[in-house]
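Hi P.,

Sorry for the delay on this. The queue was packed all week, but I finally got your sequence through. Input first:
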Amino acid sequence: MLAGMTAGYHDYVRDERLPPFHLRQTRSARVTTKNQLELSFSRPHQFTPGSNWSYSHTNYVLLGLALEKITKMSLRKALSKYVLKPLGLKNTTASQTGKVPEPVLHTFSSERRGYLQIPEGQRFIEETTFWNPSWTFASGSVETTDITDMTRSIVGIGTGPSLLKRQVVPHADRPANRLRPSGASARVRQFAVARSRASSAMASAYSGNGSWIAAQPLFAGLGSVAAYRPHGRVSIAVAVALN
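Then the structure:
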């Protein structure tokens, strides 16, 4: 239910109390697992678990904690051992700070206008390249990578059985696909996140029409897409500043 987004947990990212954490001092402020769970569990379930579908970042935090119990190691080490190394991602590492190794695509945004109380009509834009992404997902699952590894990762996810010992359940057979969506769009489902050396978020996602395995994440003025089409084995990865 956590992986299929049918658990019904409140999404702390949509909580009105989160912005002060990541907007007050975006470069250095860090949101901890405790912060995430306090926000998540302070609200009731959105629905009875298993009866509906709604995207929630809380699910990933709980999955991260579960994986640490199962593997008896930190999520950072578990992901490196079982995912990053098998996929050959040599330039991808966990990062809970705003630091991004060079070379980096610099990004800019005006999304803090309201928080900083800058009047509409007044020109405002600031650099967002090194904003801290710790609020986004489970500690240890936020990654720094490059465009080459972005491509390798989406190909690896698209051919997922190579990472698993047992057969993967086809997307169309997953229970979540038969449930009425609630909240975020049901056409794209995000499974894992990373930050790139282009300061992007990277994820594997399932496109509802079944033709592409794709991700189209946005993060602080950065837009990117990583996609893989099993038919023909076509892959693409792009990261651009949206300014």
